[in-house]
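Hi support team,

I submitted a single chain yesterday and got back a structure, but I'm not sure I'm reading the token output correctly. Could someone confirm the output below corresponds to the sequence I sent? I've pasted both exactly as they appear in my results page.

Thanks,
R.
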Amino acid sequence: MDADKQHAYQLIDQLDPGQLAAVTRLLEVIVDPVTRSINSAPVEEEAISPELAAMLDRARASIERGDGVRHEDLLRELGFVPRR
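Hi R., thanks for writing in. Yes, this is the structure output for that exact sequence:
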């Protein structure tokens, strides 16, 4: 077994259950060829139409005026309860 793999095993042995679950998920994503393919695909950018640009400008101005809805308020309104 090479040194990097042995070192990885030693580090994994030191993880608590929550950390181990997170690392396991990360390794699944790294190893999954579909996920790797999606992550390495080039970003396709669409041209922004003048109408969309105007809508984005209005939305940004609305947020700057304080007219936006806070994320926490939206979650509460939709019935989602934050995890503790």
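A quick pointer for reading it: Residues 2 and 81 are 46 Å apart (CA to CA). Let us know if anything else looks off.

Best,
Support desk
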